[in-house]
Write a structure and sequence with these properties.
The complex is a heterodimer of chains A (242) and B (313). Chain A has 242 residues and is mainly α. Chain A has eleven helices and no strands. In chain A, helix 1 crosses helix 6 and helix 8 runs antiparallel to helix 9. The longest helix of chain A is centred in the middle third of the chain and has 33 residues. In chain B, strands 6-7-8-3-9-10 form a six-stranded mixed β-sheet, sandwiched between helices. A four-stranded antiparallel β-sheet of chain B has the order 2-1-4-5. A four-stranded antiparallel β-sheet of chain B has the order 12-13-11-14, with helices on one face. The chains are: A mainly alpha (242), B alpha/beta (313).
Chain lengths: 242, 313
């Protein structure tokens, strides 16, 4: 697993993928941050984070689009699938490397918050300094939601050898996951609403934005990520029978 | 070393591998011989755990590859039809990756250097794989297969697409590997498996239709002997001389004419060597033989015969 993880990390920085991801993600985040906080003269961050969730829909698939699509195209998956490792090790190696990239991105964006501590003195909206607990809660939520997005992206990349199809399909599916929650209020049937709510990655996110540590939400995100990683391993097991 | 029992692989309704059983002992160099689509690659993919069989059992050094895939795969080095190479890495980086992927416990630097010198890629080890020629890529593929010193090495069409010089080098390499490993390779060229292997399995339409020591294969198959001969002289006269030789069963004019030479395909009964009497007869008339070629053993002939006898069975 470590071999695959190391190769993936190396791959991110010897090809353009890693740089494009960090450039797009950080620039987009900086832009959103400026508009939602600085230009609004507020240290209130929930606006920023709720837009970043949608931003991740666009830039996280850059990390995952090649994962398995390229292996399939170059036939290198044959090397991995005949190596003495399990499908889990193969998928987790890739998954954790993408997760590391997400971590690098999130840590880089911490720099945005530094001015808030000074600037908050003249915060006209809230009148108080930035809420650190809320900041940590939101960063954790970003990591968890991102972990789900990456798992979905890797799963989709294992289904196709076309990188473009992989990235488009991932964005569509992730958007659907987020929007289920928004449409939910329009649905009258209670049981349908409960079921749809289960698939909504966004609604679980609410409690984090209040700075609350919600253990059920934590478990929810970890399970969703786990399910998609599991499904990816199944894709490879199933392929042996085709 | 390898035990295959009643292997079946179905794709939909077609059988890619149809009830194949064989066993391979340690130290053998076995050639899978067959036309494209015969099931060679599928069989190899099953042996290496890349595909699962529909039915049947594969034991690698006594370990069932379906039940304990990781342990079984440790004993196998595999070079698929297209060498699986990460083209954005240098040769050495790639080999390091494979070394770690296989979780080897040998001394890394020493072992990799051994592998590199065995397959002779020392002069390209710092180059990007993307920029290598096909022959070198094939060598890097073989290098990745032998990393970790697996007991069994499986090579799928190792010489396809290479130039003659590279083919000779790869064959020599396989012979060297055969001294310390059990080797299986596939090919659709009879002369290739004859040159390298100690045993030949002929596969057609998913079934093994012959399993012979390389040295007996041709003799046991031959019912007649076929010679291609190019003679300088008038076509009709040469034809009648050839036809009068004892043991000749059939003469085909190939229609190839070079200057005043004509080429004939002469078939004779098995066990009768017509070359000496042919030379004498033609020499008497002063029709020089410009070329003589034993075409016996061309894969097509062997196949036609094998498939015929297979049908009769």
């Amino acid at each position: 697993m470590l071999a695959i993880y190391k190769r993936e990390m190396r791959g991110y920085f010897t090809t353009w993928t890693g740089y494009i991801f960090l450039a797009v993600a950080i620039c987009l985040s900086a832009f959103i941050f400026s508009i939602s906080t600085l230009l609004n003269s507020t240290s209130e961050l929930s606006g920023y984070f709720s837009i970043i969730v949608y931003g991740m829909v666009v830039f996280l698939p850059i990390l995952t689009m090649k994962s398995f699509s390229e292996e399939k195209k170059l036939k290198t998956e044959q090397l991995l699938m005949t190596a003495p490792i399990s499908s889990w090790q193969m998928v987790l190696g890739k998954y954790l490397s993408a997760l590391t990239m997400l971590g690098i991105y999130l840590i880089s964006t911490l720099i945005f918050f530094i001015p808030l501590f000074d600037y908050a003195v003249v915060d006209v909206v809230n009148g108080y300094g930035p809420n650190v607990a809320l900041m940590i809660g939101n960063m954790l939520a970003m990591m968890l939601i991102g972990a789900c997005f990456i798992a979905v992206g890797i799963f989709i990349s294992s289904l196709t050898e076309n990188q473009f199809a992989s990235i488009v399909l991932t964005i569509v599916v992730l958007l659907a996951f987020l929007l289920i929650g928004s449409f939910n209020s329009l649905i009258e049937n209670e049981s349908v609403r409960v079921v749809l709510d289960w698939f909504s990655l966004y609604s679980r996110y609410q409690s984090f934005t209040y700075g609350m540590f919600d253990i059920s939400a934590l478990l929810y995100y970890i399970s969703v990520a786990g399910i998609f990683v599991f499904l990816t391993t199944r894709v490879f097991e199933a392929r042996r029978y085709n | 070393m390898i035990e295959v029992q009643n292997l079946i692989k179905k794709y939909g309704d077609t059988y890619a591998v149809d009830d194949v059983s064989f066993s391979i002992k340690q130290g053998e160099i076995v050639g899978f011989l067959g036309p494209n689509g015969a099931g060679k690659t599928t069989t190899m993919n099953i042996l290496t755990g890349y595909l699962s069989p529909t039915m049947g059992k594969v034991l690698i050094d006594g370990i069932d590859i379906m039940e304990k895939p990781i342990e079984a795969k440790r004993n196998i080095g595999f070079l698929p039809e297209t060498p699986p190479l990460y083209t954005d890495m240098t040769v050495y980086e790639f080999l390091c990756f494979v070394y770690e992927l296989k979780c080897c416990d040998l001394n890394k630097e020493k072992h990799l250097n051994e592998v590199i010198s065995t397959v002779k890629i020392n002069d390209v080890k710092d180059r990007l794989i993307r920029n290598l020629s096909k022959g070198y890529k094939q060598r890097v593929g073989i290098a990745s297969a032998i990393i970790g010193n697996p007991k069994i090495i499986i090579l799928d069409e190792p010489t396809v697409g290479l130039d003659p010089q590279q083919i000779i080098e790869i064959r020599n390499l396989i012979r060297i590997l055969g001294k310390s490993h059990t080797v299986i390779l596939s090919s659709h060229l009879l002369n290739e498996v004859q040159a390298v292997c100690t045993r030949i399995l002929i596969i057609n339409q998913g079934r093994i239709i012959a399993d012979e020591k390389a040295s007996n294969l041709l003799g046991s198959l031959g019912q007649s002997t076929k010679i291609k001969v190019k003679v300088s002289g008038p076509q009709k006269e040469v034809y009648s001389i050839l036809n009068s030789l004892p043991g000749v069963t059939k003469i085909t004019e190939s229609g190839i004419k070079e200057g005043d030479s004509f080429t004939f395909l002469v078939e004779s009964k098995n066990g009768i060597d017509i070359r000496k009497p042919m030379f004498n007869a033609l020499a008497k008339k002063n029709f020089p033989i410009m070329g003589l070629e034993n075409t016996e053993g061309e894969l097509e002939d062997v196949f036609v015969k094998l498939i015929d006898s297979d049908k009769r069975r």
